[in-house]
Every structure is written in structure tokens, then in C-alpha cells.
UniProtKB/TrEMBL annotation:
Organism: Nocardioides iriomotensis
UniProt keyword annotation of Kinase present: yes
Gene Ontology molecular functions: ATP binding; kinase activity; phosphotransferase activity, alcohol group as acceptor
NCBIfam families: PRK09585.2-6
Family annotation (Pfam families): AnmK
Entry protein name: Anhydro-N-acetylmuramic acid kinase
InterPro entries from the UniProt entry: Anhydro_N_Ac-Mur_kinase, ATPase_NBD
Length: 397
């Protein structure tokens, strides 16, 4: 099955597009994935700024939410249609939408909202669309995030010890995977979201992030600020938990650093915060290796801080066949595939809560005909693409 996925994470930096070939050898219970294409497309027009403007403490209107739900759906539809055409056709589109609010009360998730109306995607592509992949897990008592553990438990199972997948997006999440594939995944706290704010403030809006970690490399860690950041109640919660940009917001950072701070030092402190909180989160485990992905792997200051603090070697997901910028695209493609084949999943395998089939399916041009449900797979194998490694095109806005 050829699946096109189009998604944007908490960084709201770009649309990650994947074209992924998924198949199952039912006898072996193994999903095989091959990344046919993995690209990053800029948000059109002023969409990124308008999406970020929804964050608290701002207020918004139903009219603006409607306009953005439409605009995100249209943007995803256009990108998905182009990707499907370039692939010579596809069977399914996965569009998880843009998270605009994730309502957390301590260790519970009360609700989560992703926008990007899938009708536009179905209309643009003529293909069935899987969307809304978080809310069913929330309704069943989970957090609906992070969902990466569902991929990581299939992908990193069978190792010698406890292997960890670490995704460095706006928020950092980890999956601790046991050799038998059981896993625990949760959001450790901010990775890039506060750092992006610092970079933007320091450059008067010219830079959306600390390019190549230059600010953090110049700066010095401010111990008092680090202590105040570490005092956030999220870091004391017992996993699995999730968090978001509404918690670690620009207003939160502005309030902590005060007016006109030394931004390089703030950046160095935020990098230290991410490395410290990831290391603290993993301290109870006997970790044999950490496999990192996400945009934060492009920040050498952050990767150096992680290498200093983590008790196990850090490698990137590229080494295991999933591109650092394309791993999330594979995750969404896999989740859409599992939904299509009626495979129930859970964000918290240890809870004893029965897994659920996630998502919502919108018909494409044809009436919906679903295949018979598949036996839940137990392993995932990444097949190297016929044309060597997948191409990663990054076009800047
Ligand atoms: N060259 C780079 N130097 C520093 N940071 C980078 C670089 N490239 C990407 N990033 C960081 O990665 C973030 C995007 O990562 P991504 O994995 O897409 O996160 P999300 O899933 O939240 O969208 C950017 O906002 C930025 O902070
Ligand atoms: Mg992103």
C-alpha cells in the first residue's frame, strides 16, 4: 500500500511529506516499510504565523479557527495531491492536522484539537484520508501523544537491552523499548519550542530557530534560570505524560527571563534544560542506545549537550534507515495504515486499557471499502529504497 502522509509538528515549522510503501507479511507479523520520498514543504503565505497566533495567552474567534481549519486542509490537500502524482499514484492519505490545543491537567489529558479539515484533502486527492489520530486514545483515557511509541516498539524491538527513541521536535519525546517490544513513551518537555522563541526574539523575528546552535554555542548556562526552568511541575510527573506549546509557551519564557536578557545565554540554558530533562527522564532505565530524530538533531549544541548528559551512545535514526526529518512521516503513514487495516493500538501498553483503532476515515472519490482487519504486527522492518537512500528535499519558505 502506498501511503502519502502530510503532517506538521508542534514547531509549526513546515509540512513534512512522506510517500511510504507499507506491506505486511502476515505469517511473520512484520510490517515492511520503504520510504519512497521524504520532503519538507513550507507553509503557504502567513499560515505559520496565524497558527502560532492561536496560542495562549492570545484569544481567537470561531471565524479564525474556521478559516485556519480550511486553510490547513487546503494546504495539506495541495501538497498531498502533488506527492501522490509524483509517486505515480497512492492508495491512502494520512493527515493528522496541526495541533492547536492540547489540554493537560497534571498527568491527565482532557482534550486535544488538531485542525485541517480532511474533506479538502479528500477533494484534492480523490483518495481516502485518515485524520484525527489522537482523540480516540484521549477518549479511552490516554494522552493521544506522543504516538511515536507505536512505531518505536515495532522498530526497536529485539535489541540487546533497553533502546530509546528520542524525537527532538518542538517538544522532546522518548520511547523506552524493551527487547520484547513493550514500550513506554512520553513527552519529557521542551526540545526546540522555547529555543525557537529565544532565537526569534534575539533576531527581531529574522530567525525562526537558533541556526546550527550558534547562539547556544556562544552563550553560557545561567544556573538560576536553569533552576527556575527545572522547577516546572511537568518534570515531576510520572510517565506516560504529554505536554505542548500552550504549556511551554513564549509567554512562559518571556516571564522567566524578563526584559532584554542575554539571549545567547538563554539559548545555552535552554539547550542544557532539554539535555538535562531527557537524561533525568531516562535515569531509571538501563539504556543501551539512544536513537535520535527530528529537527533538533540539526543543532550541534543540543546534540553535544545530550552526548554529555546521556548514559548511552546517541546515534541518529538515519543509521537505522529512517531519515531524521522523515521519521515522523513514516510514523503517520504507519498509523494510517494500521487504522485502514483495523489494527487497535495504545499509547500506554502498561495501563491494561484495551487498545483502540485510532482515527477517522473520510472516503475519497469512491465509496469506502475497508479490507478485513489484520492481525496486529509485532515487528517493523525498514527496507532500503531501490534508489539507495531516500531523497530529502528541504525547500525554505
Ligand atoms: N539547522 C538547524 N539548527 C538548529 N535547529 C534546527 C535546525 N534545523 C531544524 N532545527 C530545529 O528543528 C525544529 C523543527 O523540528 P521538527 O522535527 O520538524 O519539529 P516538529 O515535529 O515540532 O515540527 C525547528 O523549529 C528548529 O528548532
Ligand atoms: Mg516540523
Amino acid at each position: 500500500m502506498i501511503v502519502v502522509s502530510v503532517a506538521s509538528g508542534t514547531s509549526v515549522d513546515a509540512l513534512d511529506v512522506g510517500v511510504v510503501d507499507l506491506s505486511v507479511r502476515d505469517d511473520a507479523g512484520t510490517v515492511e516499510v520503504e520510504v519512497l520520498a521524504s520532503t519538507t514543504e513550507p507553509w503557504p503565505h502567513d499560515l505559520r504565523d496565524r497558527l502560532l497566533a492561536l496560542l495562549p495567552p492570545a484569544t481567537t474567534t470561531a471565524a479564525e479557527v474556521c478559516a485556519l481549519d480550511t486553510a490547513v486542509g487546503q494546504a495539506v490537500g495541495a501538497v498531498a495531491a502533488e506527492a501522490a502524482a509524483r509517486a505515480g499514484g497512492a492508495d491512502l492519505v494520512v493527515s493528522p492536522g496541526q495541533t492547536v490545543h492540547h489540554e493537560i491537567d497534571g498527568d491527565r489529558c482532557l482534550g486535544t484539537l488538531q485542525i485541517g479539515q480532511p474533506a479538502w484533502v479528500a477533494e484534492a486527492t480523490g483518495l481516502p484520508v485518515v485524520s484525527d489520530l489522537r482523540t480516540r486514545d484521549v477518549a479511552a483515557g490516554g494522552h493521544g501523544a506522543p504516538l511515536a511509541g507505536i512505531l518505536d516498539s515495532l522498530w526497536l524491538a529485539g535489541g540487546a537491552g533497553q533502546r530509546v527513541a528520542l524525537n527532538l521536535g518542538g517538544i522532546a519525546n522518548v520511547s523506552v523499548v524493551q527487547p520484547d517490544g513493550t514500550s513506554l513513551a512520553w513527552d519529557t518537555g521542551p526540545a526546540n519550542c522555547l529555543l525557537d522563541v529565544a532565537a526569534s526574539r534575539a533576531s527581531g523575528g529574522a530567525h525562526g530557530h537558533d541556526v546550527d546552535g550558534a547562539m547556544a554555542a556562544r552563550g553560557r548556562v545561567l544556573p538560576e534560570l536553569l533552576d527556575r526552568l527545572l522547577a516546572h511541575p511537568h518534570f515531576a510527573l510520572t510517565p506516560p505524560v504529554s505536554t505542548g506549546r500552550e504549556t511551554f509557551s513564549a509567554a512562559y519564557l518571556d516571564n522567566l527571563v524578563g526584559p532584554d536578557p542575554a539571549w545567547d545565554d538563554v539559548a545555552a540554558t535552554l539547550v542544557e534544560l532539554t539535555a538535562r530533562t531527557v537524561a533525568d527522564a531516562l535515569a531509571p532505565y538501563d539504556v543501551t542506545e539512544v536513537v535520535a530524530s527530528g529537527g533538533g538533531t540539526r543543532n550541534p549544541s543540543l546534540m553535544a549537550a545530550l552526548a554529555r548528559h546521556l548514559p548511552a551512545p546517541v546515534r541518529t535514526s538515519d543509521d537505522l534507515g529512517l531519515p531524521v526529518d522523515g521519521k515522523e512521516a513514516v510514523l503517520w503513514a504507519l498509523l494510517g495504515f494500521l487504522t485502514w487495516y483495523g489494527v487497535p493500538v495504545t499509547t500506554d501498553p502498561a495501563s491494561g486499557r484495551p487498545p483502540r483503532v485510532l482515527g477517522r476515515i473520510s472516503p475519497g472519490a469512491d465509496p469506502l471499502v475497508l479490507p478485513p482487519p489484520l492481525t496486529p504486527p509485532t515487528r517493523l522492518r525498514v527496507r532500503a529504497a531501490a534508489h539507495d537512500l531516500p531523497t530529502t528535499e528541504v525547500r525554505s519558505a
